[in-house]
Write a structure and sequence with these properties.
The chain has 269 residues and is an alpha/beta fold. Helices cover 43% and strands 16% of the residues. It has a single domain (4-266), classed as Alpha-Beta Barrel (TIM Barrel). An eight-stranded parallel β-barrel has the order 1-2-3-4-5-8-9-10, surrounded by six helices. β9, α11 and β10 form a beta-alpha-beta unit.
Length: 269
């Protein structure tokens, strides 16, 4: 399996870097006229995949919207992953897992392994230590996938923790440095950096991010404009995967393709 670290350059050349989120929340399902059930979540997801296929190269299912349904939700998610693979789309599993030892090995095997939930990238949290994520880094290397480490998120409460400093560096800058060193320029260890705050407000510089693959939520409905990607990330913008979800879903099943094309136009595609 060739994961996102291997395929990103080809995807960017063919489709651009846009990632489409698959977020079957209760509100989104209701707006689509679908029940808030595993079947409803699956129907919405398949509609997004159908619209995304041939327009973008990457989708990002938010796993929390599936696991709230228990076993049936995970069965729906397995079907979503299967459909995305059949459509030729790369999958970022937005799971934000982070633990130590054999537990982290289990998460890495689940989301970056050969099973039904194996994906091309996963999001991970470094709160228990950057080194604790090593099983995910090893799995990403073995499969050409990406472990995207939470670095600077743009939720309101983030600064409570992320404003901390490690010596002369901010916590986000320290995580960015560790990710670059561990990835060794092969993209297997990436970063999650929100787009609704400036890099300076997040304690980062362009230099912190250059040559690191960056998953960036916050575009579209959350307020950041895709047309401002370069002004937000500067020299690091070539490595940014901007993600949109609510702005794609809110038009209902008949508006997904048009919304994706509109976002691609913002990126000059």
């Amino acid at each position: 399996m060739s994961g996102l670290s291997v395929t990103f350059e080809a995807i960017r050349a063919s489709f651009g870097p846009l990632c489409v989120g698959i977020d079957p929340s209760r509100d989104s399902l209701h707006s689509w006229g679908l029940p808030d059930t595993p079947d409803g979540a699956l129907e919405m997801s398949l509609g997004v995949i159908d619209a995304a296929s041939g327009r973008v190269g990457i989708v990002k299912p938010q796993v929390g919207y599936f696991e709230r349904f228990g076993a049936e939700g995970f069965r729906a998610l397995e079907s979503v992953f299967s459909a995305a693979r059949t459509a030729g789309l790369q999958i970022i599993a937005d799971v934000k897992r982070g633990d130590i030892g054999s537990t982290m090995e289990g998460y890495a095997e689940a989301w970056l392994g050969d099973g039904p939930l194996g994906s091309d990238a996963m999001t991970v949290s470094p709160y228990q230590g950057f080194g604790a994520l090593e099983p995910a880094f090893v799995a990403a290397e073995a499969r050409g996938s990406v472990a995207f480490v939470l670095c600077a998120t743009s939720n309101i409460d983030a600064a409570t923790v992320q404003a901390a400093r490690h010596g002369d560096r901010t916590l986000p800058a320290e995580i960015a440095l560790l990710a670059r060193e561990r990835s060794n320029n092969d993209y297997t260890v990436g970063l999650v950096v929100g787009a609704t705050r400036s890099l300076a407000e997040s304690g980062l510089t362009e230099e912190n991010l250059v040559e690191s693959l960056i998953l960036s939520p916050g575009f579209g409905a959350q307020g950041a404009a895709l047309g401002d990607l370069t002004s937000i990330f500067g020299r690091a913008s070539s490595w940014v995967i901007p993600s949109v979800s609510r702005s794609v879903l809110r038009g209902g099943p008949d508006g997904v393709a048009t919304a994706i094309e509109s976002h691609l136009a913002e990126l000059g595609r």
